[in-house]
Amino acid sequence: MASELEVFILVAESGGFAGAARRLRLTPSAISRRVALLEDKLGVQLLSRTTRKVELTAAGEAYFARIKPLLAAIASAADDLEQFSPVPVGQLVVGAPAALLERKLVGFVEEYLAAHPQMRIELVPTELGSNVDYDFIVQSLASSDKNKVSMKLTANPWTICAAPDYLARHGTPEHPRDLQAHNCLVIGTHPHWQFFVDDKELNIVPPSRLISFGSAVYRAALDGFGIARLAAFLVNDDLANGRLVKLLDRYSDTRPRDLYLIADADKIALTKHAGFADFIKAKFAAGF
Q: Domains of the chain by range and CATH?
């Protein structure tokens, strides 16, 4: 369980009790009580609470500035002790899109934990935001942060697809513009679909009756509700067994789109980080 100091840091970084509560899987009221206990011990108010927002007081800002680097130093010291352990020990926080967690990473992590009984891994959807202190993130772009290392895992192109049942009822589009006459399923963060027609890029915002996150769009596509553009990690198995059919392949956006494992450059050589990275890279290299 997170200490009262760690709870306070999370509240300060996330701008309120709700963000810290999501991160720690507690209720906002439980987070508020933990901070109140810390304030009682210190004899000073750290947070200004109103019905609309939570803000650091002047004392809270000063305390946050002193405590955050100290907690980071304690965590770093614990990491340094790993060199004395011959096997991975401790905890890792791994972030990825919820759909990738559900479809692939949960299974990979279960296998990893079975082989490393002294490890604990927390899987966090990156849709929750950037305030989480991740050890690893799996994402579709290499990091531009000079303090991070980006390890390519596998190609992950967008795939236009639909269930055979949908195509039997509505026909198969032969050209990207034919999508205007179809029921399209759109991931809310990626509303533009890119194609190449006559060696020129064509961007389409398809008509959509369902807009959601990747897992929901994938489920609707399998159910035969419409045509979707989904990442390869979601649909490769379904394309192979015929549950989904690849569409408009001749017009596909051929620009590289890959999955990367992102980690802190100063931690990647540590026993538990290096071992986990090698395991995940091997799993993706084996095909997915």
A: 4-81 (1.10.10.10), 86-154+258-285 (3.40.190.10), 158-251 (3.40.190.10)
